[in-house]
Amino acid sequence: MDAAGAPLLQVEGLTKRFGGFTAVDKVSFTVAQGEILGLLGPNGSGKSTTFNCIAGTLRPSAGSVRLAGAEIGGSTADETCRRGIGRTFQIPRPFRGLTLLENATLAAFYGAGGHIDRAEAERRARDALRLAQLPDDAAATAHGLGAAGLKKLELARALATQPKLLLADESLGGLDTGEMRQAADMLKRIRDERGITIVWVEHIMGVLLSVVDRVVVLDHGAVIFRGTPAEAQEDARVAEVYLGPPETRAA
Ligand SMILES: Nc1ncnc2c1ncn2[C@@H]1O[C@H](COP(=O)(O)OP(=O)(O)OP(=O)(O)O)[C@@H](O)[C@H]1O
Ligand SMILES: [Mg+2]
């Protein structure tokens, strides 16, 4: 909660239609200051589209998005970035010809709306790279980064914008179990050490449940569950979405 008592993020009735298809259907949830919320759901359930509507990459068809009490629904991506929303993309989008430091420095400039000098942008960039456990020397390039390294670079670019709220679209495909664990620990450290509020999107439940404070589960664009990780593991609807109807599950 901020000083006025409002949650940091309030999403209400958020809806996104593509033609006649409703990808996000009256989704509502809140995220308190300092919380890590897990946004879960199977492939195609609307998680990335929800992020895109919050972060301004897509314009919502209906509904409200408030950041610290102020309506930001329908804002552009650079407006939401300047207001303090950092996001990673599920499919990493680095500038491959640039160094890691240059990638993060550009993000720092973008987040500040250009109103910082190069030295300050580089300072923010190095800090973000260290937080994401990437080398911050001027020579390191994005060439040869594997799936885990590219995810870290996405995170560093988002962190370099100095967000209050981090929308992490992890969908940890391509990572092995050790790398998933490392990614989860990193998000937890970012919250614990920097106080950055996080919404973490995943389609796999396992590692996420050990780190998040609360869980929202989507299915076919609609919220089917809100609660604690422990409650999510006990919930029949969540199990059905993830495992199929009880009669079809392997013993
Ligand atoms: N630009 C678009 N135009 C048309 N349909 C879209 C568009 N973007 C997403 N969709 C559809 O909206 C639905 C939700 O997609 P979304 O990418 O939000 O799912 P997701 O939960 O992020 O899935 P995943 O776990 O695979 O990343 C899917 O059916 C998808 O095909
Ligand atoms: Mg997605």
- Count of helices? 9
Order of helices and strands: EEEHEEHEHHHEHEHEEHH
Largest sheet: 6 strands, mixed
Structural class: alpha/beta
Radius of gyration, in Å, reads 18 Å
Q: Give the full name of the CATH homologous superfamily of the largest domain.
A: P-loop containing nucleotide triphosphate hydrolases
User: Using DSSP, what is the number of strands?
Assistant: 10
Architecture of the largest domain in CATH? 3-Layer(aba) Sandwich
CATH uppermost class of the largest domain = Alpha Beta
3D structure, described in words:
This protein is α/β, with parallel strands linked by helices and 251 residues long. 36% of the residues lie in helices and 24% in strands. It has helices at residues 47-55, 77-82, 100-111, 118-131, 147-160, 177-194, 206-209, 229-234, 236-243, and strands at residues 9-18, 21-31, 36-40, 62-67, 70-71, 85-87, 165-169, 197-202, 214-219, 222-227. The strands form 2 sheets. It has a 6-stranded mixed β-sheet, with helices on both faces. A 4-stranded antiparallel β-sheet has the order 2-1-4-5, covered by helices on one side. The relative contact order is 0.17. The model has no long low-confidence stretch (mean pLDDT 91). Magnesium ion is lined by residues 47-48, 90, 171.
